[in-house]
Amino acid sequence: MSSQPRCPHCRAFVYLDALICPNCTAELGYHILTRQFHGIRNGRVVIDGQNWYTCSNREWDCNWLVWEDAPAGRCFSCRLTRTRPASNDTVALEKLVKVEEAKRRLLLQLGDLGLPIVGWDVRKGGLGFDLISSLSEGKPVMIGHASGIITIDLAESLDDRREALRVKLGEPYRTILGHLRHEVGHYYQNVLLTDDEMWARCREIFGDERTSYKDALARHYKFGAPEGWHQSFISEYATMHPWEDFAETFAHYLHITGTLQTAAAIGIHLDAAVTSMRDTDVIPRESYENEPIQRLLTDWGWMSQAFNRINRAMGFGDLYPFDLVEPVRRKLAFMHDIVTKAPLTIDEQYALALAVQEEPT
Asked: Which of 152, 177, 215, 286 could anchor a disulfide with 102, C-beta 3.0 to 4.6 Å?
C-alpha cells in the first residue's frame, strides 16, 4: 500500500510529517489505514463513518490520527513508545520530535511490507521503544534491543553528536532512521524465524548467534573488523557477531526497498533513450513481493548509481556508499525470502493496529 502525500483540499504535495499544507494552510492529519492525509477541523475528521481525532502528542508534531476507541488518545506509533522524557523536559522532547518522525516512517514501511507489528502493550515481547536522552539523564544510554523493546538515545538526533559517532565507529552512513531499521532487525529475527529449519538456514548464512555476544563485543572493540571484511559483510559492525550481521543486513533491505518504493511512487526511472548509463529502461516498483531478489538488486544497482551521481552533483557524498558483494547479496536474498513469506493481509494488519491494551495480569 503506497502513501498518498497530497493535501485533500488543494492536492499539493506534502511530506509525510506535515501538520499544515504549505500551499493552502489547511490543517492535516495522516490516516495510517489508507495512507492518506485528511483535513481536520476542531481536531476531528470522519473517515468511512468513524470518528478519528488528532493524536494527543500533536503538540510535539505527531500528525497521525487516532481511532475513536484508541486507549489514551495516542496514535499507533506513539502507543509503541514505552518510555519518553518527562513532560517538563522540553529540551529532550524537542529531540524526541525527530526520532518519533523517523519511527513513524519506519512503521509505515514495515506495514507496507506486511510485517506483523504487535505492540508491547498488547502482547509480552511485542514491539516497543524506550526513547531516552543521555543529556537529560547525565549518563550514557544503553542503546539496543531486548525482548521487543528498542532503546534509542535521543541525543543522536543532534547532527554533530551523530556525526562524531559515525566517524568514531568508522561508518560511512548513520541516520536515526537507519539506526531504527537496524534495531528492529533484531526484533524481526525472532519474529520471522519460526522453525528449526529457518534458524538452521540463518546460521549457515550469518553464523551461529548462540556464540558469546559479550566476547564478540570485547574482541570487536579491541581489534576492530577482520582484514578483508569487505568481501563478506555489508559493514564493519556486521562483522562483530551474527546478530549484528543479521540486523545490518535487514536494515539494508529496508534501505533498498524503501528508496525504490519512493522512486516508484514519484515516477523516477531510467530512460534508456536518454541516459548514458545502460541500454534498457530501469523502472522501480513500489513492491517487489512477487519479484525475485535478482530483479530487486539489479534495479537497485542502477538506481543507486544514479542517486549517487545526483548527490555528487550537489557536492555531497554518495547516497548509498556500500558495495553489495556476492556474500552480501546472498544474505539479502535470505531477507527477501523471509520478508516476502511473512506478509499479513490488510485485515490482519488492521486487527493488530486496532488492538486494545491487554488487561493487567
From this structure: 177
237: cell is: 559492525
Please give the pLDDT value at position 157.
78
Residue 232: which of 249, 215, 210, 253 has the closest Cα?
249
User: Stretch 197-211: mean pLDDT, rounded?
Assistant: 97
- From CA 315, how far away is CA 145, in angstroms rounded? 36
All three cell numbers of 336, joined, read: 527477501
Q: How far apart are CA 63 and CA 20, in angstroms?
A: 9
How far is it, in rounded angstroms, from Cα 92 to Cα 329?
A: 39
Long-range contacts of 295-302 (CB under 8 A, 24+ apart): 296/256, 296/257, 296/260, 296/336, 297/256, 297/324, 297/329, 297/332, 299/260, 300/256, 300/259, 300/260, 300/324, 302/270, 302/277, 302/278
- Please check whether residue 30 is in contact with residue 50, taking contact to mean a CB–CB distance below 8 angstroms: no
Residue 128 pairs in a beta bridge with 149
Exposed (0-12), middle (13-18) or buried (19+): which is 227, by Cβ within 10 Å?
Answer: exposed
CA-based R_g, the chain, Å: 21
Strand spans (E) along 78-119: 81-83
Give the pLDDT confidence of 83-128 residue by residue, as tens digits. Answer: 999 888 888 888 899 999 999 999 999 999 999 999 998 889 999 9
Contact 178, 162 (CB under 8 A): no
Q: What angle do CA 96, 98, 104 make, to 5 degrees?
A: 95
> What's the grid cell of residue 337?
525470502
Cell numbers for 240, please give them. 562483530
Q: For 28-50, how does the pLDDT look when each residue is reduced to its tens digit (9 = 90+)?
A: 999 998 899 999 999 999 999 99
Q: How many residues does the chain have?
A: 361
Helix (H) or strand (E) holding 294: helix 293-313
